[in-house]
Amino acid sequence: MRISERVGLFIERFREQGGVVELVQSWDEVLDFIVREARASSGPEAIATCDEKRLESIRNSLDGVSRLVGPHAQPTEIANCSLGISFPEAGIAETGSILEICYDDSDRLVSTLPPTHIAYLESSKILEGLLDAAPLIRRASKQKAFAATIISGPSRTADIELRQVIGVHGPHIVKVILEV
Q: What's the rounded Cα separation, in Å, for the pair 130 and 72?
C-alpha cells in the first residue's frame, strides 16, 4: 500500500472512531495549532518526552500563553492539565490508531489524564497494519521497561445496556496533528 493510501485510510478510520485529524505541512504549523489549542483551554498543558529542539520550540511558542508541564511531571501535575501533547511512535492505517511507546509513566499519563489529547505524527510513520508495529514494540522491549498503548480516538465505554459513553476514563477529545 502506498503512503498516500495509508494516510487516507488512517484518517478515515481515526475519524470513524471519533478522533480528529488536522493536516499540517510544517513544524511551524504544528506550533501554531498547539498555541491555538492552548488559548482555548482552561489550564496548563502537559507534554510527553520529545527531542530537546521540539520541546524548546513548544516552550517558546507557549511563553505568555500557557504553562507547559513536563516531561517527567508528577501525576498530580498532569491531572491538572487541560491538554496533553504526545509524540506517538507510529500510526496504524487499518485500525485508525496511534501507537505510543512510553518508557516513563508520566509520558503515558499525558495521553490519558487531560481531557484533550493532541498527538503529533509524521505521515511517514503511518504503517499499513497492526502487525507492522511488532518490530517497534520488539525493539522497545530490548531497551528497558516500557508501556505500549494503542489509542483509537477518545476514551469510550459501554454500560450493561450497551449505551456508549465518551470520555469516562480518559480524554474526551483526541486530535492527531498529521504532518504530510
A: 28
Q: Are 96 and 19 within 8 A, CB to CB? A: yes
Boundaries of domain holding 78: 3-179
What's the gap between Cα 75 and its chain centre? 17
Identify the residue whose cell numbers are 520529545.
50
Question: How many domains in the chain?
Answer: 1
**CATH assignment of the domain containing 33:** 3.40.50.10420
Q: What is the pTM of this model?
A: 0.90
Q: Is the pLDDT of residue 44 over 80?
A: yes
Tell me phi and psi for residue 102, to 5 degrees.
-120, 135
Q: Are 175 and 45 in contact (CB under 8 A)?
A: no
Check whether 144 has a pLDDT greater than 90. no
Q: Tell me if 174 sits within 8 A of 154, measured CB to CB.
A: yes
